């Protein structure tokens, strides 16, 4: 009988431990509804752990006749709380490596926009007399800024275009917002229009890659009168309401088992997991726990683990730009885009000449790309063989030839693709 009572007491202690851990986690995340201060969240978790463990031990052990005072339960609760705090705190609060991004080069300048954004940019002036509309490159991501102006941009400058490439808000060397809820599609559109005004241009030419193509689409819906031409290379989802299922998971499905294991280990680290859960409750608390420096570096490592899956098999391996990516602008802007109303009714009235480029091995569903072709009445679709999502990376010569021909009004080196279904 004594043995059974003691065994029952051990079982109750284990039950008390599990209950205390659950209570601590609940208190941690519930407190985030009221505050973004991480010390307060931690204090709430430790108090909940101590109280739950103490009450459970005292009641449970008393039930088995093994305790006649509260003191042993209080001591056990105090010891367990210290051990729990240390075990949870070390992985949760141990800083991760911080990024060592490239310092601003001699060609990097900054715009202080009326939107409040401080935007890093590079500019190559036109050779000879500049054409009326400058070219503005829009990088992908959101948050994966390029290293200044690409070879294609330099070639366009030689053709007489003023060429600009900028780090979008929250990425590269541009502003990081203290309140990450400010990363929205509308803010990016407002920044782009402020840049147009800063350039003194009534019309601009937009060249967007992936998310940059999606951003160009939203700008076209808001300010079509200020776009001379647009080039959308592997554009992102035009409207998530029609493409929510197709928009997620395609790249993940192409990862090798080793790549997937690496990406999963990075994305499921204790600090990242806690930040992602907190973001559902209070994005400011997530940002306070996992700051921009650490989040951006972790984001870079996840991108490094998966970038080759965006290419056609057999292409030379790609590498990420040295410029610093932006984790929170990526997460928050995508979340915001998924809540926006359908822009397609507006875009069906936009007649701006638009080139849509699709690579043979693009991981995005065909309908994501074709949505632009069937929505924009002034659009032309070009299908690029042996190219993945980043056409300029897999087929740089073809990419440049097509873009130059389109902007200069020459015959395209590849025929327009007119079918509603992909080539077989």
UniProtKB/TrEMBL annotation:
Pfam families under this entry?
Abhydrolase_1 (PF00561)
Residues in AB hydrolase-1 domain copies: 134-395
Q: Which residues cross the membrane?
A: 12-34, 40-66, 73-93
Keywords assigned by UniProt? Hydrolase, Membrane, Transmembrane, Transmembrane helix
Query: Matching Gene3D superfamilies, A to Z?
Result: alpha/beta hydrolase (3.40.50.1820)
Stretch forming the signal peptide: none
InterPro entries, alphabetically?
A: AB_hydrolase_1, AB_hydrolase_fold, AB_hydrolase_sf, Peptidase_S33
Q: Which family does it belong to?
A: Belongs to the peptidase S33 family.
The entry's protein name is: AB hydrolase-1 domain-containing protein
State the organism named in the record. Answer: Microbispora amethystogenes
The upper taxonomy is: Bacteria, Bacillati, Actinomycetota, Actinomycetes, Streptosporangiales
């Amino acid at each position: 009988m004594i043995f059974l009572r003691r065994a029952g007491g051990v079982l109750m202690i284990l039950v008390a431990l599990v209950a205390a851990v659950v209570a601590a986690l609940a208190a941690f995340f519930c407190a985030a509804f009221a505050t973004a201060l991480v010390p307060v969240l931690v204090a709430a978790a430790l108090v909940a752990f101590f109280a739950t463990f103490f009450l459970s031990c005292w009641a449970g052990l008393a039930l088995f006749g093994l305790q006649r005072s509260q003191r042993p339960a209080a001591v056990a609760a105090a010891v367990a709380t210290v051990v729990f705090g240390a075990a949870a705190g070390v992985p949760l609060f141990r800083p991760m490596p911080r990024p060592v991004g490239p310092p601003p080069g001699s060609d990097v300048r900054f715009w202080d926009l009326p939107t409040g954004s401080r935007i890093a940019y590079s500019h190559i002036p036109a050779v000879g007399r500049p054409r009326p509309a400058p070219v503005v490159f829009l990088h992908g991501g959101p948050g994966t800024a390029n290293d200044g102006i690409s070879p294609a941009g330099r070639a366009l400058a030689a053709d007489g275009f003023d060429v600009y490439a900028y780090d979008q808000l929250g990425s590269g060397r541009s502003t990081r917002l203290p309140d990450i809820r400010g990363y929205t599609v509308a803010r990016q559109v407002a920044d782009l229009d402020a840049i147009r005004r800063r350039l003194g241009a009534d019309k601009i030419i937009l060249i967007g890659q992936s998310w940059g193509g999606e951003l160009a689409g939203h700008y076209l819906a808001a300010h079509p009168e200020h776009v001379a031409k647009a080039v959308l290379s592997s554009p992102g989802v035009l409207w998530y309401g029609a493409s929510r299922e197709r928009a997620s998971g395609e790249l993940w499905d192409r990862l090798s088992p080793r790549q997937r294991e690496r990406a999963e280990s990075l994305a499921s680290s204790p600090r990242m997991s806690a930040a992602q859960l907190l973001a559902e409750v209070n994005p400011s608390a997530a940002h306070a726990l996992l700051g921009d420096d650490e989040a951006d570096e972790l984001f870079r490592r996840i991108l490094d683990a998966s970038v080759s899956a965006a290419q056609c098999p057999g292409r030379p391996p790609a590498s990420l730009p040295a410029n610093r990516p932006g984790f929170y602008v990526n997460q928050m802007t995508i979340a915001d885009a998924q809540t926006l109303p359908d822009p397609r009714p507006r875009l069906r009235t936009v007649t701006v000449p638009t080139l849509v480029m699709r690579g043979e091995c693009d991981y995005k569903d065909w309908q994501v790309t074709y949505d632009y072709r069937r929505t924009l009445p002034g659009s032309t679709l070009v299908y690029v063989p042996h190219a993945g999502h980043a056409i300029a990376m897999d087929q740089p010569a073809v990419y440049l030839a097509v873009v130059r021909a389109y902007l200069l009004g020459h015959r395209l080196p590849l025929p327009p693709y007119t079918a509603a279904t992909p080539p077989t």
